[in-house]
Amino acid sequence: MKKYRLVLSEDTFLWIKNHEGLVYQSKKYRAFVFSLSEKLSEICSHLFVLEHLYTIDLTEKELKNSDVRHFVDQLIEIDAGRLIPNTSTKKGTVSLMPVLKIHEEISDYIKKHKRGVGGNIIEHIHELTFYLNGSKYGNDLYYRQTIFPTKHESVLETEKIIRFIRNSKNPFLFNINLVGNIFSFPYFEELLHHIETFEIPVTICITGSDAFENKDLLKKNDWRKFRIIADKKDNIERTIAFFEEIGISFSVDFIIFSEQDYLDVEKFSTTMDGNFVPMCNGENIEFFESNIFISEKEILSSALSKRQIFQRQATNVNHFGKLTILPDGNVYADANQTSLGTIGDTVYSIVYREFTEGKSWFRVRNFTPCKDCIYQWLCPSPSNYETVIGRSNLCCVKP
């Protein structure tokens, strides 16, 4: 009886949950879902054993099983595996199952901390967001979902901001956001001058309303890139026209509460650097369910590479490497979670606390119902929206 060897590609992910399976080819972004029969369960269990090198030998009789034949044909069709006659099988006809390998575990940082040699943990800071002060156009629900000014009456101290940046500086810190009403922040130009000496890109984030009310001040200053938060639809067009007129580099976050909001601002996005930012106001959950929640079709067409899947298995892509400092000086990895400390604490202690006690940077989909879903690692990382809405996911598959 003829024998064959089934070899799965090293770019192929195989996931089994209950009575369902998913094969995802991460190089060509192709996938298929299959029902787990008794024989397929046996085959998959064999493939999951690392020592079997992602291979299994099948007889001609086994390949006549309709479930097995269909499974093998689908693997070949999406280039996720090969079926090789045993007579031509060479010793080297094997593969390696894609398995996440973490260079340094959290336990490694704990050991380094105890020895007093864990300073390189700072290199995991990639972005800092300072809420300098509040704004009368701020909103204490919206800033928990995206960058948006708060209504805080507190004001950060310039010296503490500079010290925090200096102690955070590392080769991987790629951006600093300054959020709030900069026109009422004391010594803003002095602060900006100090930050620019660190040679780290700075983005000034203000509402369109604050910007429009302070047009004269903007004309007098040679400030850097702005991120305009379009908080009011009725002044979007004139605010954009003003920034274009004075020649300041800017992008726009179009805040979207409904489908009509999207239609109203879509015309602006085609001619400029703009992002559509959905916002939950507590009354538009139907808009999120219809437009933001992800479907099975969208998950399967997400075109994730092997590396991107590993990232989702190890870290929260939305939050990892980011620290947010609010006007009262409290520091967060995610504004919806517990404070990690204050701006007066050492940066090292804050990052170490997130590594060992935090719930943001390493919050992945290992909770119910996601952990029981075959799309667990193809879904986006948990976001602020889930927390604000009160859902475990924004998914149409396992809501």
Structure summary:
By secondary structure, the chain is of the alpha/beta class. 32% of the residues lie in helices and 19% in strands.
Topology summary:
Blueprint: E1 3-8, E2 12-17, E3 20-25, E4 30-35, H1 38-47, E5 55-59, H2 60-63, H3 66-77, E6 81-85, H4 106-115, E7 127-131, H5 158-168, E8 175-179, H6 188-196, E9 202-207, H7 208-213, H8 215-220, E10 226-230, H9 236-246, E11 250-256, H10 259-269, E12 274-278, H11 285-291, H12 296-300, H13 306-314, E13 322-325, E14 330-332, E15 341-342, H14 347-357, H15 384-389
Parallel strand pairs: 7-8, 7-13, 8-9, 9-10, 10-11, 11-12
Antiparallel strand pairs: 1-5, 1-6, 2-3, 3-4, 13-14, 14-15
Helix pairs in contact: 5-6
Provide tags for this entry:
single chain; 399 residues; alpha/beta; TIM Barrel; 9-stranded mixed sheet; 3-stranded antiparallel sheet; 15 helices; 15 strands; 19% strand
Note the total helix count: 15
Overall form: elongated
In total, how many domains does the architecture comprise?
2
Largest sheet: 9 strands, mixed
Mean pLDDT: 92
Biggest sheet: strand arrangement: 12-11-10-9-8-7-13-14-15
Helix percent band: 25-40%
Tell me the CATH architecture of the largest domain.
Answer: Alpha-Beta Barrel
Low-pLDDT stretches are none
Strand content: 15-25%
Order of helices and strands: EEEEHEHHEHEHEHEHHEHEHEHHHEEEHH
